[in-house]
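Worked example 2:
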Amino acid sequence: MLDKDARNDLMERGYSRRQLGRIAALVGGGAALAPFAPSAFAQSQAARGVKGAVQIGANECWTGPFPAAVAAGATILAQGNRYDPDDLRGKLIKTVATVERLPEERVMPWPGSGDPLVRSVITFCSPSKGLVTADPTFESAWRAAAWLEAPLAKVPMAPGAGADVRKMLAANPNAGLYYICTPNNPTGTVTPLADIEWLLANKPADSVVLVDEAYLHFSEAPSAAPLAATRSDVIVMRTFSKLFGMAGVRLGLTFAHPDLHKRMMRYDGFQVTGTLPMPAVACGTAAYTMADAIRARRAEMIAVREATIAQLTRRGLQVLPNSQANMIMVDWKTRPAAEMQKALLAQNVQIGRNWPIWPTVSRVTIGSADDMMKFSAAVDKALA
């Protein structure tokens, strides 16, 4: 239940009592409620691996956490009778703050990044203050805005480009939240840091920019984290689900001014960030400082990605350019993406979904070298 202060805040921003009920459901884990779930079906299906299949549909890493990180998590798992046996949450915050050169009070851990993404929509949008995103992009924010009946503007991306921040601002000059995923899911393209800085300089003073850097470790692009170190109108979001190989372990981060975090957490009494799975915290803390291992994993992915693109190009297929993440967008041209997804699954290769804006384009996760060889063979057979 929402407390009195949270209810008053929401009603002052224009939410109705019915919408308050929807917000309570979202914060309480209601993202799977029946009216909210149908639009998430394709995404959830991709995340459910088909046993025995080549699983390259959910942008997961092809391998698990770094061995040293697994060992750190296992040590704490054996102490699972303790809520937090050695201030592990504090150690994670200190480690991240050191690596990112941020004040510790601006680092907030979460059980995954999905929760703070939805909370950002709840906190900074309203019936009069909408959400603006690129299109295509990660859809969770779209679904939250639609569920809450907040205005939503989707700005088409040019193939191979990042978010067009000037068009995003023009789409709603009075928005409450501007969401930029960079590298973008599903395109892998990067929005230049200078463009994000432009948006911050020109947006409404009371709006917030959310920069989702879930895939940043796969790229060598600069982070927006330094902006979160000094500003009070930007949130930078991270996850351990991608390069760190912890999708099933659930750990995420946000970097922001403490006042923004306070606003985001008010709807459930500030509890969620204090209920972290400690093995995940220990695993993430160990992994975060492993710069050499991060570079090696990134290089391995890039080599496999470029080899896959070359193979598809030789096949006469178009791969949208400039991905800097563990995914590519393949344009089948004459075949609907949903049809190709089914054809490949029939060969035990599970690729990702497509977005309505590009109906013949599929997102394909970069798996291991063996995964991608099997994918290329399946493509050859499906198009024969």
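The chain has two domains: 39-64+291-382, 67-288. Confidence is low (pLDDT under 50) at residues 30-38.
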